[in-house]
Amino acid sequence: MPDSAIRPRKEFGKTIAADITHRLREEIVSCSLPPGEPLRFDVLRERFGASFTTLREALTALAAEGLVDAQEQRGFRVAPVSRQDLVEVTDARVLIEVELIRRAIERGDDDWEIAVISTLHRLKRIEQRDPEHPLRDPEWKIAHRQFHQALVSACGSATLLGIRAELFDRAERYRHLSANFRPRPRDKAGEHQAIMQAAISRNADLAVQLITTHIRTTADNVAKYAGHLLDAE
After folding, report:
1. Domain that holds residue 185
2. Is residue 138 part of a domain?
3. What is the pTM of this model?
4. How does pLDDT run across 138-168, given as a tens digit for each residue?
5. Do 122 and 34 belong to one domain?
6. Residues linked to residue 191 through DSSP beta bridges, in sequence order
7. Torsion of CA 20, 25, 31, 34, to 10 degrees
8. How many helices, marked H, and strands, marked E, lie in the chain?
9. What is the dihedral angle through the alpha carbons of 221, 226, 227, 233, rounded to the nearest 10 degrees?
């Protein structure tokens, strides 16, 4: 079938490529598309009904975010996970989050405080639906992202927020691995509550300490319980 005859369905983005980028990003981040999975044009073209040019645009965008690997003469694949990548993403996240939460605490107004409190409240309500397995609810992922975004939203730098968002997506894959393989539930609700309280109390040093531990605990759990996947590459 010629490309001109294809009528792909657009849902999320302003363009077809943006829609496909969004959908693939969600599947990569959630590990529905596992690390290292080949992303073959013929399969994607049949699935999305998009031209090769559109698919290449989407995959190139994801490669720029570090979620897809462009392999010379071999096409594209989901970016693998590794110990080195885990360390680099974790260190970069800590650097960015520490800077942004300090700025947000310094500059945040009443609206910022309300946003932090309300997003955590929504996250808690979702967790109460299934206290044993709250992360299974797809709305938890959205609410979790919104809470962490709210914490740094008053930082005053759209550029840094953009970098942070890309790092958050790259780290989200490792969070899924941590949740899937760790033997005991983690008290994320307690961690989030403590971070929120430190932030709205304007205790920047404590907030930095808590957010750093929050991020690094995920990395430590991945290395400890999913190390066989990190060593598979």
Report:
1. 83-229
2. yes
3. 0.78
4. 899 899 999 999 999 999 999 999 999 999 9
5. no
6. none
7. 70
8. 10, 3
9. -130
